[in-house]
Each structure stands twice: as C-alpha cells, then as structure tokens.
Design goal:
38% of the residues lie in helices and 21% in strands. The chain contains 17 helices and 22 strands. α8 runs antiparallel to α17, α11 packs across α13 (267-289) and α11 packs across α16.
Length: 477
C-alpha cells in the first residue's frame, strides 16, 4: 500500500479517536456537570412537557411532584416540594431557570421516563406520551425531623445509614433551604454566607477529631499488631513527629490498654499506635473504609467530596510527608465528610462489611412495575472478629466513657465522640455510633460546627433522638 495513503489513514484514525474521546467525555464522564449546567437549558425545556415522576419518602409521603400549567400544546409541568426545606438537601431541585442538583439530577432518567431507544420509539408509534417513573427514597421524614430539631439551627449535619443495606434514612444539612424558593430567590440563596445550598453531609470537609480513632483501632486490631489488652503510655506531653502532643485537658494516664484508651479517648496513646502502625497500614485501612475516593452514592459527583489528607486541594498518600500519629487521632490535614464517618461506623456495625450508600429504595413505572434496591458491598474492611471486638470497646465508650450522652434507655449503644479544636473555645463536635449494638439497625454520624461544646454532650443527644426515632419506627412504635 502507498506509504502516503497509510499515513493519511493513520491520521484519520487519530482524529476519529480524539473525536470519540471528547464526545464520550461530555456524554458519559462529565454528564452530571453538563446536565446541571444552567446554560444547557435545551433538555430542561424539552422535559417541561413531560410529567416528571414523584419522589417519595420511605413512608410514601411526597417529597417532590410536578403540577401542570397551561393546556394543550402549551401545557408544561412545574416542580413543587410539599415538605419545604425538610428535604432541600439532599433531594435538591429541578427548574428550567436554575437546572438540577442532588437526587433530582442523579435520578433524572427515571424521573422523566427515559427508556431504551427501542422502547421510546415503540411508545411513540403507539402514541403514548412520555411519563416519568416514581422514585422512592429511603429517607425517613421522622428521622429527618428529629435531626433538624436536634441541630436546633446550629450549623452541621446528620447522616443515618442502615448498616446491612447502605440505605440512607436521614441526611440533614443545616442551614437548610426550601427548594420552592429557588426560582424566585436563587441569587439570594447563592449569596447567603451560611451556604444553605451546600450539602454539608456530602460536600463539607471537617477534621474528624477523635472519631478517627475508630479507623485507627480497626487498623490496629485487624492487622494483628495490637489486641485490646496491648499497652502504651497515656502520659500527656509525649512527642509525636517531634512535636509535643497533649491529652484533652492535659489529663494524665499511666500505662493503659487499648480498651481504656478508647473509652477515655486518650490522644497520646492513639497517636503512638498510629506511629507504630505506620503510614502504609493506616492508609490501607482508610482506603478500605472509602477514604481517598468519592463515595459510590447515587448523587452527582460534583456534589460529593473525597475524604482524606490534603495539602490545599491535593490529596496526599503514604509516600508524602505526613504526621501519621496526628492523622490517627483525627488531626493533621485530615478532612472528612459526615457521610464518610457514617460509613466508618456502619462498617463496624455490619460485622466489618461496608455496603455502598444509597438514597433510593425503589422505582415504580407508570404501569406499576417495580425495581427495588439490591444492596451492594463496597468493601470488606475488617474481619468479623475485629468488628465484634471493636463493637464491645465502643459500647464501653457510651456506657462509662466520653459518650454517655448518647446512651439510649433500654438499648445497648456503641459509639465514639470527637472534638476537633479549631481555635481556643471553638470546636467541631462529633458523635458517631450505632444501635442496638447487639443487632445493629442504624448507624449515625453527627457534627455541630464551631461550637464551644465537646463531642459527647453536644452531639450525643442528637444521636440519641435520631436513633430512638428510627428504632421506634422500625418496631412499629
């Protein structure tokens, strides 16, 4: 074959590959961003003529519905949110002028009734109008309300997750917003310094404080490097990575075992454990829990933050210069989302197996056919034996340690507190836990931003209120 023809053929192949690559990126890999872009209104205008499916809560109540405006060829449908701000985050909104975000965007194909090309053509030939499917979420209105009431206007977040399935029963971000206000007040909501449109549960990165000790304890036990009876010094003022580290309030302990160190959240003990485990082991277990990657939640990727150790916006790994002792106690440059910490505690509750988190529960098409959630395993984080040991240790935290404010009457609770000091007298307060500890039904993470309080007294009561609400509902109470 003529060499020039071969070169021309090769050049055309390269051009085709580039064209294919760019179109694939826009249509597949960057589809969420493209669909959410307010400037890309063509699909939104087209879909106004489709009766968008309802979004339901777990109890069947309506979170979002579409109502008709006009008649005949001029009929369009407009989105309404009957429960106002209760589900603003995470459900989001869908409007021609502002685009889509949240659950509305993630489940857009089902909500507008997009089918395979063959079925769409078949419907057109039959003269059937396109109608959206109903999508039922796993979100429990009573649990949402309990979390909102518990936060009581304080900035923060609560995530409640079923350990065995990954279903999200509550996802609250305060300040909240009413999606019905979006078309009229979008500019004002966007300018609001409290950032109500920002879903703290999935997008905010916080220092986790001592809740990170659950991850460190998992690595210590599951790697075989430590046992519950392993001892280290709990003295305050020990050097970690060349810098003195103190216990909370300067509290002094002698040589103590791991159970005592977790019950009393002894910083110096756990920092030494982190240094002994080393960066490779710590990062291995962090990755098993889902750190260093966006969570596989049915949610737009641009609304999901990665949890991990950061230098600015750069995600760091075990080969980087990191004070692993302080990472082990939730300090250093570690940033986590409330969703990530719910996953951490859910993995312990589910005998060491982490399930993929899910907001949806089932999809119902206009003919009544259902597609239900099929739980999927994200990873095996630890052995069942490790999970059982850690469960017992975390029960001690609530029974006699820093987490007594999270105790639920008549129910065994496993938990861990955290207090991340941002500046003198300004903390991010945490509580993560699950209940009942003997048969876990719900795992919960809670954070209150920039408070003068500590994790246990501040977030323990919120955990308790949400857990009681969910457990009473599950038992029919």
């Amino acid at each position: 074959m003529n060499r020039q023809i071969v070169k021309l053929f090769g050049f055309l192949v390269v051009l085709y590959a580039l064209l294919f690559g760019f179109t694939s990126y826009w249509s597949i890999f960057d589809a969420d961003d493209l669909k959410a872009n307010q400037a890309n209104r063509r699909p939104l205008l087209e879909e106004q003529q489709i009766k968008r499916g309802d979004i339901l809560a777990a109890d069947g109540s309506i979170i979002a519905r579409s109502i008709p405006r006009g008649s005949g060829d001029n009929r369009i449908y407009v989105r309404r949110y009957p429960q106002g701000g209760l589900f603003g985050n995470p459900i989001g909104y869908s409007f021609v002028t502002q685009g889509r975000v949240g659950f509305e965007l993630a489940h857009n194909d089902e909500l507008v009734g997009n089918q395979t090309e063959f079925l769409s053509i078949l419907d057109e030939l039959r003269g059937h109008a396109q109608v959206g499917d109903t999508v039922q979420s796993a979100l429990d209105p009573a649990a949402q309300e309990a979390a909102v009431n518990g936060l009581a206007g304080r900035r923060g977040s609560v995530v409640a997750m079923v350990p065995s399935t990954g279903e999200i029963r509550a996802m609250v971000s305060i300040p909240e917003y009413d999606p019905n206000r979006v078309p009229k007040d979008f500019a004002q909501l966007n300018r609001d310094e409290s950032a109500p449109l920002f879903n703290r549960a999935t997008q905010a990165g916080y220092p986790p404080g001592s809740t990170m000790k659950v991850v460190t304890a998992t690595a210590a036990l599951d790697s075989g490097e430590f046992t519950p009876s392993s001892t280290l010094s709990g003295r305050s003022g020990i050097e970690i990575d060349g810098v003195p580290l103190a216990n909370s309030g300067g509290e002094q302990f002698g040589t103590i075992d791991m159970t005592t160190a977790l019950t009393n959240s002894v910083n110096t003990w756990w920092a030494q454990a982190g240094e002994e485990l080393g960066k490779d082991t710590m990062f291995e277990y962090m990755n098993r829990f889902g750190f260093d990657a966006k969570p596989p939640l049915d949610y737009p990727r641009f609304q999901l933050a990665t949890s991990g150790v950061f230098d600015g916006n750069k995600l760091l790994g075990p080969s980087d210069a990191i004070d692993i002792g302080r990472v082990a106690i939730g300090q250093e440059r570690l940033r986590v989302t409330p969703l990530q910490m719910a996953q951490v505690v859910a993995a312990v509750a589910n005998e060491g197996e982490l399930m993929e988190p899910r907001l949806w529960s089932r999809v119902i098409d206009p003919d009544g056919r259902e597609t239900r959630l099929d739980p999927a395993r994200q990873s095996r984080v630890m052995s069942e034996e490790t999970a059982a040991t850690l469960n017992e240790m975390m029960q001690n935290v609530v029974a006699e340690g820093t987490g007594t404010a999270g105790a639920v009457s008549g129910i065994d609770v496993a938990g861990k507190t955290g207090t991340a000091e941002l500046s003198p007298s300004v903390n991010d307060a945490w509580f993560i836990g699950f209940a009942p500890a003997s048969d876990p039904q719900i795992a919960i993470s809670c954070i209150v931003e920039r408070t003068s309080g500590f994790g246990g007294p501040t977030c323990g009561p919120i955990f308790k209120a949400v857990a009681e609400t969910i457990l009473q509902g599950d038992s029919g109470g």
